[in-house]
Give the backbone structure.
Amino acid sequence: MSDERGIAERSVAAIVLAAGSSIRMGRNKLLLDVGGETLVRRAVRLAGEAGLDPVILVTGRFREAVEREVEDLDCTPTFNPDHETGIQTSVACGVAAVPADRTAAVVMLPDMPFVTARMVRTLVSRHAETGAPLVVSRYGDVNAPPILYGRSLFGEIARMRAGCGREVVRRHHERAVHVDWPAERLRDLDRPDEYESVRGEFAAAASRGPA
């Protein structure tokens, strides 16, 4: 890796969205255990392993419990006082907390347990290689996090009316670089049955040991 590319990769922050109310799950899903660690702890750890710095953790309804869960990890909790009005306010809150010397940020969702640090690193590498202001994960025909946004898009993100950056992705699709992932990695955890299914899969994989 050249020095120039290395500097580019170290200049990317993470925005981990952890401000939701978990209404469909019926309890705080951020603290649910999958594979031996909670969802929020896993997301923060992966962001750090991917080389993102700082890791900005946007909190909301479960602020105190979530912050306690990751207090020993290297992250910067940021409270979104408007979290009840929609996820777009949490993305905007995270963007506002990105240091001025960072060139981009990767938005991540803790309830996507099949996202890996390698996937996040790939987004950052594509940004460094191409200079694209938008690097989007694509699962089949669905665009979803993690998504990398260049600083030139931060103003638009702050003005979003709805969604997790979908408006920005639509407006700039011609400038975007897409990275394709298997469709099954898109799975997220919103309902109890989804959690039980994924927890069982992780347990079964652990019992089989390393491949």
Q: What stands out?
A: The radius of gyration is 16 Å. Helices lie at 3-10, 39-49, 63-69, 87-96, 117-130, 154-158, 166-171, 192-208. The chain has one domain: 3-201. Residues 192-208 form the longest helix (17 residues).
